[in-house]
Amino acid sequence: MPHRLSHSLAVESTKEEESRQGFVTGMRRYVLGDLASHMRTVYENKVKANYKRKNGFTPQDGPSIHKEMKKETLFKFYSSIRNSTQEMVWRSVLPSISRSDRELASKVSDCNKGMDSIHVDPNLKIPRYISSLDVHMMPGCYNTERYVGDVTQGALYDNGLSVFLMGFLGPEMDDTGRSVSQFISERYPKFRPKKMLDIGATIGFNTLPWLETWPDLEIHAIDPAVPNVNYGHARCKEMGKPINFHQMDGTRLDFDDNSFDIVWSAMVLHELPSDKVSRVFSESKRVLKPGGLMIHMELPLNSIVEPYEQFYLDWDSYYNKEPFYKSFRDSDIKKIVIDSGFKEENYFQFIIPSYFNHGHDAVISAARDSKAVFAQNIGKLQDGINWFTFGAWK
Description:
The protein is α/β, with parallel strands linked by helices. It is built from 16 helices and 8 strands. Helix 8 links the parallel strand 2 and strand 3. Strands 1-4-3-2-5-6-8-7 form an 8-stranded mixed β-sheet. The protein is globular.
């Protein structure tokens, strides 16, 4: 069964709805576990061997493998059922959210009323790469508002991810922020940040854990979608950790130069066109204080994983309404960071073990390792997951 949300904004599901959500969680575990493993076996024992006999060498990159695997019945079945299960994630939680959407909107409004830590910009135009498609097949994407004060999309993301993530990222779904913040704290013990910016924070999953690492940290979380800002602010407040939320585009930051010690994002950049990624980096450098840290957690670059993993991870770009997913993973991210104004010697990449999958000691051990590399299972929702991170010091 998926984890049940523990905060006061959690919607009530019927037993039938809970059963459906449990089924979808189980189906995703089957698809991403057993079925994915079987598909790898078919590739190793059949597809790769046939390719080598025909060409004299094995496939050298993800697209070559994708071209061959598309001929296989198993891949067609895998893609079809994974695609359907993705849609079922959102459908499994929508009835309970729709049933209580007005009550939830009222609760969020009451929670946010009179607070000077929430900032909505009525003049902000939602970028077309968000508004024109339902990213992750989530109906309405992040930004849709059916009426003034509607927070359905924030609640949909919150409740849907509890099904989607299958428990891999902990009860609050905050594993990424928890893993990275603890790693940074241990690796750079003299670093004492006072102010942080979270770009594309959605509803604050991976924002909150930074306060456990540095309790006095002043955090500003930004997102272009109003439902995320309203719901996320209320969610964090109800969980006892108030965060400043702003409706803002990460490519055009409305903050002063040299104003943050950390600029952070989690799984955001692969949803942006290439020119916008570069813009996020240049804006990050502008708002960072001298000696400040820019760090992003993302999907692993194709240059650091083997060809089959390239093929496997790029699936979302073709079949999950994430059109910029592959172009990001194909990019020379170090060059983009340097071209955005950071010095080459200040650039870094780390593979960080997941807190909830490997344990606290593994995170600390990796931080103390001069290479800090856990080479297996990077970015895949399976046992033993590790996170790819990169960034630079200003």
